[in-house]
Amino acid sequence: MTKASKEGRASVAAVLAELGLYSPAGSGIYVIYGEPATGKTTLAARLLEEASREGAPAVYIATEPNVRLYGQWQKIKSLLPARVKCDGVEVDAVQYHDSYTTLMYAALKALQCKSLVMAIDSVTALALHEQARRMAETGRLEILPIIREVSAFANAFAQLIASRLASEEGRQAQVYLVAQARAAIGQPWHGEPLAPSFALRAQHNVGACARLIVLNSGERLLKVVWHRDARYAGKAAKIRLEPL
Questions:
Q1: What's this model's pTM, rounded to 2 decimal places?
Q2: Pairwise CA distance, residues 72 & 193, whole Å
Q3: Which of 32, 35, 127, 144 is the most exposed place for a label (fewest CB within 10 A)?
Q4: Contacts of 63 (CB under 8 A, 6+ apart)
Q5: Strand pairing partners for 189?
Q6: What integer pLDDT is reported at residue 105 of this predicted model?
Q7: Superfamily of the domain at 12-239
Q8: How far apart are CA 174 and CA 46, in angstroms?
Q9: Where along the chain do its domains lie?
Q10: How far apart are the first and last CA of the chain?
Q11: Torsional sign, CA 155, 77, 240, 12
Q12: 15-33: string of b/e by CB count within 10 Å (b at 16+)?
């Protein structure tokens, strides 16, 4: 991938590589999390745009209703080819899923490509769909059981992806699990607000967790909260994101 954009600033891929969150020579699963409206979707979309421009298969899978509701869906579709074709597999480059089953099978189908950059935005947003379904069915909304259910799915989902990535040598797949910052474990990492609980429970499978922050100046900071390689833990870099 290119190291700088046409405006001269560092590319998204270059910043992620600097923080140990992108390794095109191998495979990895990375969690990018943060508060609402910090730019997580934009970061994922711009990374995939760069990957596609450099010839890498790129797949964006949304589960977040607001991505479709407020127009980002169509903008992301304009950044990527309509279809991804590689290793005998053909899938839509931009997809939307609102259930555990369809998300799981869509991701596994895309991962038949030996070389791939894929973002799932967001695995934790499935809770919104489950809440809506249960409200419609029962007229009641019990949040905690749904959060636990989605967290358990996300943990197992990360393990399933890791198993697929490890099943064949020579794979070059980068998978990004985007998530909202909803802490559920009572201890901080490097003094930062906590990552989504599934990411910390899934450390056997996740390569790193990084938090996207909007500074008082309006600039964005991407900080590594946890990393398998201790050299990267706690590292941070400012990142410029062109709006969608």
A1: 0.88
A2: 27
A3: 144
A4: 96, 97, 98, 103, 120, 121, 122, 123, 125, 126, 129
A5: 192
A6: 95
A7: P-loop containing nucleotide triphosphate hydrolases (3.40.50.300)
A8: 14
A9: 12-239
A10: 20
A11: positive
A12: bbbebbbbebeebbbbbbb
Cα–Cα dist 242/240, whole Å: 7
Across the chain, which has 244 residues, the per-10-residue mean pLDDT values are 48 95 90 89 96 94 91 95 94 95 95 94 82 82 77 85 88 91 48 53 78 90 92 94 91
Which amino acid is present at 244? L
Amino acid at 88: G
Q: Is the peptide bond before 115 cis (omega within 30 degrees of 0)?
A: no
pLDDT at position 183? 47
pLDDT at 220: 95
Q: Rounded distance, CA 66 to CA 64, Å?
A: 6
The 3-state DSSP class for residue 5 equals coil
Contacts of 35 (CB under 8 A, 6+ apart): 180, 181, 213, 214
Look at residue 167 in the predicted model and tell me its pLDDT.
Answer: 87
> Token pair of 71, please?
């127009």
Location of structure tokens 């990375």 = 30
Closest CA to 178 of 21, 27, 23, 55: 21
210 forms bridges with which residues in the sheet? 32, 224
* Chain-centroid distance, C-alpha 176: 3
